[in-house]
Specification:
- By secondary structure, the chain is α+β, with helices and mostly antiparallel strands.
- The protein has one domain.
- 45% of the residues lie in helices and 27% in strands.
- The protein has 2 helices and 5 strands, in the order βββββαα.
- Strands 3-4-5 form a 3-stranded antiparallel beta sheet. It has a two-stranded antiparallel ribbon with strand order 1-2.
- The longest helix is centred in the last third of the chain and has 28 residues.
- Bound molecules: zinc ion.
- The site of zinc ion has 7 residues, from loops.
């Protein structure tokens, strides 16, 4: 996931600012799942900057990927490199899948 909180961003209007608040907006329903977009607002020109679309599948994938990362760390510490590499592979599969879903949601539910 993108860690955008507390990051310094630049708006199209040229304003540099720190993101203090992430807002969420309901975008609709796709395949029985609610779709939300996360965005932040420029304090100067009030432009909305969306940066993340998510649904239940995305949230589940994020949880699973966190588990794969944790296990990978455990296997590395235990010097079980084969198992660690397998977790890494699963993590990468999950990331690719999540990226695909996010792209689809973004296309289907363009931010107004
Ligand atoms: Zn701005």
């Amino acid at each position: 996931m993108i860690i955008i909180e507390k990051a310094l961003v630049t708006c199209d209007c040229g304003k540099h600012f720190k993101v203090r608040e992430i807002k969420k907006r309901r975008m609709g329903v796709h395949q029985g799942q609610k779709v939300r977009a996360h965005f932040f607002v420029c304090p100067d020109c009030r432009k909305k900057h969306p940066f993340l679309w998510e649904n239940d599948d995305i949230r589940k994938l994020r949880q699973k990927n966190k588990q794969h990362q944790d296990k990978m760390g455990e296997y590395i510490r235990a010097k079980q490199i084969g198992k660690a590499e397998h977790e890494k592979w699963q993590f990468e599969q999950g990331m690719t899948k999540a990226r695909g879903i996010k792209g689809e949601l973004k296309e289907r539910f363009p931010f107004p």
